[in-house]
Amino acid sequence: MTRSLDEWLQWQERLHPQAIDLGLDRVRAVAARLGLPDAQPVTLTIAGTNGKGSSAHLAALIYREAGYRVGLYTSPHLLRYNERVRIDGQVADDAALCRAFEAIEAQRGDIRLTYFEFGTLAALWLFREAAVDVQVLEVGLGGRLDAVNLVNADAALITSIGIDHTDWLGPNRDSIAREKAGIFRPERPAIVAEPEPPPALTEVASACGARLQRLGVDFGFEPRPAGFDWWSAQGRLSELPSPGLSGLAQLRNAAGVLAAVEALQRRCAVPEDRLRRALPQLRLPGRCERRGRFLLDVAHNEQAAQVLAEALRQPGLPGPRVLVLGMLADKPHAAFLAALAGGFDSLVLVGLPRPRGLDAATLAERIGRQDGVRCCDNMPAALTAARELAGDDGSIIVSGSFLTVAAAAPLIHDAGSC
C-alpha cells in the first residue's frame, strides 16, 4: 500500500512503544541491511545543548559556497518534517522521503525503529542516493547512543554543554558532556566550542585518542565592530563578516564551525573567500528571528534563555515588550523565566498540546507567577492578548519551545499584524 508522508510519520509514531529509545544496535542492524555504513561521504557530526542547529546550517552553507554537494540533517523541524533533510540547500520533497521510508521498511524485518531512527536512516539513504560530497549531521539527543552516531564522523563538533534532558543524559554538566563526547572518534578532530568544558570532555577525548581542539586554547575569536577575527594554530582570519544570526553566542558557534572546516581542509578544501561569502548568508527561522515587531526564538532551556536575554539587551526592540511563553512539561520553567528577567514588560502564557506540553495555568504555577499574567489556551488568543498589551508601538517576543514558535509563525503575516 502506498502511503503519503503524513501517513508514514503517523505510522512511525505508533511502531515503537517509546518515543525515545537510545541505543545503536537496532539502527545499526537496519543500516547494515541497507548498505549504509559501507561508503560514507566526508561527515561532520555536531552535538551540543544549544547552537548545534545553527552551527550545522552554517557548516553546510560554507561547503555549498565552496562548490561541494552537501547533505544536511537536522532536528526537530519547525513547520514541516521535510525541513530535517536538505540536499544542496533544498528540503527533501514528500516523494523522496516516502521512497526512503519504503526502502527502510523493506529491510527492517522485525526490528522496531523509533520515529527519529527512521528519519536518520532516511537522511543517510537520500544522501547516498544524491552522491553528496559532504554530510553534516546534527545529533538529536546526547550523542553516544543517538542514531546519528552510527556514522563514524570525520570531525566532531560540540557547541555547548548545558543542563537539559537530564532524564536521559544525567543530572549535571559532566554526565551530559560524557554523553555528547560519545561522537568523538580515535585520531579524528574533536572540536569543542563550549568556553567552560567539563572535565569529562577531555577525559573522553584522551581515552579514545581523539584530537581535541578547544575554544580559547587551540582556536578562538575576537569580536570586532563590523564582524570578528578568528584564529588557530594555523593562522588568523581578520575582519570576517558577522554570521547572519546576531549575538555573541553565534560568533562562538561560528568559531567552532570554522575550526571544524579547518580540521577537514585536506579532505574538503574551502578557500577563504568562500568562508567570507557564506557567513553573512546564514538565516534560520526561529533563532532570534525578527518579523517586524515580533521576535521568534525557540529557546527552551536556561542556557538558551541566557542567550535570548543577551539579544533582548540589544537596541532595536521597542517597548512595551510582551513575552508570549509556552513550554514543555520537562523544562526548567522558573529558571528559564528568571534568565529573561528585565527583558520584557508583560507576560502572556500559552498552553501547548499534551502529553508533552503544559497548559497555561500549570505553567503559571511552575514559574510562580500568576498575578498580572495573561493565560491563554491557544496561540491565536495569546497573540491577540499580546497585541493589546504591546499597543501600536511595542514588541512581541515568542519563545519557550519549538512548538510555541511553530504555532505562532503561520499567524504572523507581516511587519505588524497577526
From TrEMBL:
Pathway: Cofactor biosynthesis; tetrahydrofolate biosynthesis; 7,8-dihydrofolate from 2-amino-4-hydroxy-6-hydroxymethyl-7,8-dihydropteridine diphosphate and 4-aminobenzoate: step 2/2; Cofactor biosynthesis; tetrahydrofolylpolyglutamate biosynthesis. GO terms for cellular component: cytoplasm. Its cofactor is Mg(2+). InterPro entries: Folylpolyglutamate_synth, Mur-like_cat_sf, Mur_ligase_C, Mur_ligase_C_dom_sf, Mur_ligase_cen. It is an enzyme of class 6 (ligase). It catalyses: 7,8-dihydropteroate + L-glutamate + ATP = 7,8-dihydrofolate + ADP + phosphate + H(+); (6S)-5,6,7,8-tetrahydrofolyl-(gamma-L-Glu)(n) + L-glutamate + ATP = (6S)-5,6,7,8-tetrahydrofolyl-(gamma-L-Glu)(n+1) + ADP + phosphate + H(+); 10-formyltetrahydrofolyl-(gamma-L-Glu)(n) + L-glutamate + ATP = 10-formyltetrahydrofolyl-(gamma-L-Glu)(n+1) + ADP + phosphate + H(+); (6R)-5,10-methylenetetrahydrofolyl-(gamma-L-Glu)(n) + L-glutamate + ATP = (6R)-5,10-methylenetetrahydrofolyl-(gamma-L-Glu)(n+1) + ADP + phosphate + H(+). Residues 46-186 form the Mur ligase central domain. Pfam families: Mur_ligase_C, Mur_ligase_M. Keywords: ATP-binding, Folate biosynthesis, Ligase, Magnesium, Metal-binding, Nucleotide-binding. GO terms for biological process: folic acid biosynthetic process; tetrahydrofolate biosynthetic process. Gene3D superfamilies: Mur ligase, C-terminal domain, Mur-like, catalytic domain. GO terms for molecular function: ATP binding; dihydrofolate synthase activity; metal ion binding; tetrahydrofolylpolyglutamate synthase activity. Its EC number is 6.3.2.12, 6.3.2.17. Residues 289-402 form the Mur ligase C-terminal domain. Belongs to the folylpolyglutamate synthase family. Functions in two distinct reactions of the de novo folate biosynthetic pathway. Catalyzes the addition of a glutamate residue to dihydropteroate (7,8-dihydropteroate or H2Pte) to form dihydrofolate (7,8-dihydrofolate monoglutamate or H2Pte-Glu). Also catalyzes successive additions of L-glutamate to tetrahydrofolate or 10-formyltetrahydrofolate or 5,10-methylenetetrahydrofolate, leading to folylpolyglutamate derivatives. Monomer. This is Dihydrofolate synthase/folylpolyglutamate synthase. The lineage of its organism: Bacteria, Pseudomonadati, Pseudomonadota, Gammaproteobacteria, Nevskiales.
